[in-house]
Amino acid sequence: MTDGFVTASGVSRHFTPSLPLGERIVAAFGGAVERRSVRAVDQVDLSLRKGEALGLVGESGCGKTTLGRMIAGILPPSDGALAIAGEPVMTCGASPRKTTTRVQMVFQDPFASLDPRMRIGDALAEGPIHHGLVSKAGAVAYVRDWLGQVGLEPDYVSRYPHQFSGGQRQRVAIARALAMRPDVLVCDEPVASLDVSIQAQIINLFLKLRRELDLTLLFISHDLGVVRHLCDRVAIMYLGRIVEEGPTHEVYADPRHPYTQALLDSVPKLVLEEGAEVRFKPIQGELPSPLAPPPGCHFHLRCPFAAERCAVERPTLRPVATGRRAACHFAKTDLNIITGSSSSPAVIASGAKQSS
Amino acid sequence: MSAPLLDVSGLETQFPTRDGVVRAVNGVSFTVNRGEILGLVGESGSGKSVTGFSLIGLVDAPGRIAAGSVKLDGRDIVGLPNDELRAIRGKRISMVFQDPSMTLNPVLTVGDQMLLALRAHERISAGDGRRRCVAALEQVGIPDPGRRLDSYPHQFSGGMRQRVAIAIALLHKPDLVIADEPTTALDVSIQAQILTEMKALARDTGTAMIWISHDLATVSSMADRIAVMYAGRIVESGPTATVLRDPRHPYTRGLLDSLPAIAQAGEDLASIPGTTPSLLKLPPGCPFAPRCPRAQPVCANEPPLAVEGDRTFLCHFPLGVRA
Ligand SMILES: Nc1ncnc2c1ncn2[C@@H]1O[C@H](COP(=O)(O)OP(=O)(O)O)[C@@H](O)[C@H]1O
Ligand SMILES: Nc1ncnc2c1ncn2[C@@H]1O[C@H](COP(=O)(O)OP(=O)(O)O)[C@@H](O)[C@H]1O
Ligand code: SF4
Ligand SMILES: [Mg+2]
Ligand SMILES: [Mg+2]
């Protein structure tokens, strides 16, 4: 996992939610209060090659944003290391700071961080001027150029944030990140709140930017269709862990983790035949509480293939085909690798799939 | 053909604002047959929710229905006095919202509010009521319903809260449920569960549904017929699969082409240029004209409503039709 351009090695992040008032009082008087923490990200290994687009997919609360923020150097990990081209993204120690401008993030709500009284041109120039990417004198031309690159009128430099529509806001947010000349862009659900026709425009913008700039892209999304369209590889998260990872078309065509399979089965498809009997194969049950995830494999309570071992032993994310990994004890593998698991359960899994 | 359950004709709903009149629903007509699922799709602001609210007399003042009729079993319910509307709402027509907190009261247990909902339309003892509520929760897949009746809404997950709202909507076995983006806020795995259950419930109980969604794929898997809205109008309607496979209206085509699911991975999507028009100052004629690849000068005139078998479309130059 060290050969990548962007690497996350054994990265975890825990949050300890603040206690409800009643329990705080109990605790203040020395009462026993259980303080459970959320393992938002739990020992994740991930790497991106230079110029690659990786989709990070999973249902809400599985840790996508937390992992993205750590890779972007905005949130320090509780454990593990994050690096770009071998250099750490943040300093270590008690008050970690971001040490690089090589990675930038486009937030899910891009305008939350913009001053409503500041013109877009000034807001976008701040970072590049501060980091010496452009002189004060050259800043206006520089920002105009980036607005043009993302398909906005260069004259919009004199507009205020509220004067932009939803799709334009995403373009502004992307221009703002790109104006920092990053090698790596982390985008958190950048098209989730947009209507399909506007979403298509922004997807096209990402395709163009990928062609024209040598960008490495971490694209966080809960939309499997958008990721299929835009990303070379995909990583599927479930309750803080990556359960499967590999080239997008291979993972979609032949998922090896039961959760990936279930997720793909849950996505409504466009039905174009009259009278087609539409059946989903919904995953049983609900997402367990992240405060108390089940032991062993986090998915075992909902997994149709779960065996005893799954309830006690955490499956490692192991190679299952060239360039593919899955974290299931019984994942079918194409490789002749000697691992702890025997091959017969793989037969169970694929056999069960055929009979369903 | 028997008479439709719901017959909406020329519906116009407007909101007077400081900047002018918002024509949120601008001459909408459609029918829903008994037991049928009609999908109402369109992008945000196209008037889907206001259409739904208009059908049950829940338009926020100073908004008002300016024209048209909504006939339920032949009887126009537009402008009925409030008590008569209340007798219909929840009993013959009920609504499920994207956000279940529009239905659920946070300070009452689920059991208490279900009992209130029951007693809004029938006299029933506490014991019988409780049994009905347990059955209703069971029907929507809530585990251990007897115990859950004593929980408050916040003690349920988002998916379970939506199930409770659906159970309440179905309590009186209504003829029609208007479901406004009921799964949009939910994760796909929970969405798949609820879609499956609602489809089965509609079939088993013979309840008709208006399924409002911005998601073509969801609608295509739920609805018998589809109506596509743009700028307050239904620009195309017909059997769902037929319309989506072979759309007549350029806007429907544009929506489909915007979907990554249809395109080759990595290729540019054929996105619709521009953005939706302001409902305050709609262009004359076809509201889609400024974004339409087929537009001609004549599109500044009102487009004709074409009827082709069980399909309708509102366009001067429909696709797939010989001129
Ligand atoms: N600042 C925080 N404090 C406490 N818990 C948090 C915080 N941020 C995230 N979490 C928790 O961590 C988990 C993962 O959250 P997140 O990374 O936002 O997931 P996703 O982006 O996949 O929806 C969730 O259970 C969430 O509640
Ligand atoms: N109470 C209101 N006052 C003024 N305008 C409104 C009101 N409610 C809705 N609208 C407007 O009506 C149009 C249609 O809204 P809506 O039916 O909610 O769209 P959709 O559900 O298709 O997203 C929008 O332009 C919206 O801004
Ligand atoms: S490891 Fe076991 S429980 Fe986990 S997904 Fe695989 S089969 Fe299911
Ligand atoms: Mg998130
Ligand atoms: Mg709406």
Automatic annotation (TrEMBL), chain A:
<feature type="domain" description="ABC transporter">
    <location>
        <begin position="21"/>
        <end position="264"/>
    </location>
</feature>
<comment type="similarity">
    <text>Belongs to the ABC transporter superfamily.</text>
</comment>
<dbReference type="InterPro" id="IPR013563">
    <property type="entry name" value="Oligopep_ABC_C"/>
</dbReference>
<dbReference type="GO" id="GO:0055085">
    <property type="term" value="P:transmembrane transport"/>
</dbReference>
<dbReference type="Pfam" id="PF08352">
    <property type="entry name" value="oligo_HPY"/>
</dbReference>
<dbReference type="GO" id="GO:0016887">
    <property type="term" value="F:ATP hydrolysis activity"/>
</dbReference>
<dbReference type="InterPro" id="IPR017871">
    <property type="entry name" value="ABC_transporter-like_CS"/>
</dbReference>
<dbReference type="InterPro" id="IPR003439">
    <property type="entry name" value="ABC_transporter-like_ATP-bd"/>
</dbReference>
<dbReference type="GO" id="GO:0005524">
    <property type="term" value="F:ATP binding"/>
</dbReference>
<dbReference type="InterPro" id="IPR050319">
    <property type="entry name" value="ABC_transp_ATP-bind"/>
</dbReference>
<keyword id="KW-0067">ATP-binding</keyword>
<dbReference type="GO" id="GO:0005886">
    <property type="term" value="C:plasma membrane"/>
</dbReference>
<protein>
    <submittedName>
        <fullName>ABC transporter ATP-binding protein</fullName>
    </submittedName>
</protein>
<dbReference type="GO" id="GO:0015833">
    <property type="term" value="P:peptide transport"/>
</dbReference>
<dbReference type="Pfam" id="PF00005">
    <property type="entry name" value="ABC_tran"/>
</dbReference>
<keyword id="KW-0547">Nucleotide-binding</keyword>
<keyword id="KW-0813">Transport</keyword>
<dbReference type="InterPro" id="IPR027417">
    <property type="entry name" value="P-loop_NTPase"/>
</dbReference>
<dbReference type="InterPro" id="IPR003593">
    <property type="entry name" value="AAA+_ATPase"/>
</dbReference>
TrEMBL record, chain B:
<dbReference type="GO" id="GO:0005524">
    <property type="term" value="F:ATP binding"/>
</dbReference>
<dbReference type="GO" id="GO:0016887">
    <property type="term" value="F:ATP hydrolysis activity"/>
</dbReference>
<dbReference type="InterPro" id="IPR003439">
    <property type="entry name" value="ABC_transporter-like_ATP-bd"/>
</dbReference>
<dbReference type="GO" id="GO:0055085">
    <property type="term" value="P:transmembrane transport"/>
</dbReference>
<dbReference type="InterPro" id="IPR003593">
    <property type="entry name" value="AAA+_ATPase"/>
</dbReference>
<protein>
    <submittedName>
        <fullName>ABC transporter ATP-binding protein</fullName>
    </submittedName>
</protein>
<dbReference type="InterPro" id="IPR050388">
    <property type="entry name" value="ABC_Ni/Peptide_Import"/>
</dbReference>
<dbReference type="GO" id="GO:0015833">
    <property type="term" value="P:peptide transport"/>
</dbReference>
<comment type="similarity">
    <text>Belongs to the ABC transporter superfamily.</text>
</comment>
<keyword id="KW-0472">Membrane</keyword>
<keyword id="KW-0067">ATP-binding</keyword>
<keyword id="KW-0813">Transport</keyword>
<dbReference type="InterPro" id="IPR027417">
    <property type="entry name" value="P-loop_NTPase"/>
</dbReference>
<keyword id="KW-1003">Cell membrane</keyword>
<keyword id="KW-0547">Nucleotide-binding</keyword>
<dbReference type="InterPro" id="IPR017871">
    <property type="entry name" value="ABC_transporter-like_CS"/>
</dbReference>
<dbReference type="Pfam" id="PF08352">
    <property type="entry name" value="oligo_HPY"/>
</dbReference>
<feature type="domain" description="ABC transporter">
    <location>
        <begin position="6"/>
        <end position="256"/>
    </location>
</feature>
<dbReference type="GO" id="GO:0005886">
    <property type="term" value="C:plasma membrane"/>
</dbReference>
<dbReference type="InterPro" id="IPR013563">
    <property type="entry name" value="Oligopep_ABC_C"/>
</dbReference>
<dbReference type="Pfam" id="PF00005">
    <property type="entry name" value="ABC_tran"/>
</dbReference>
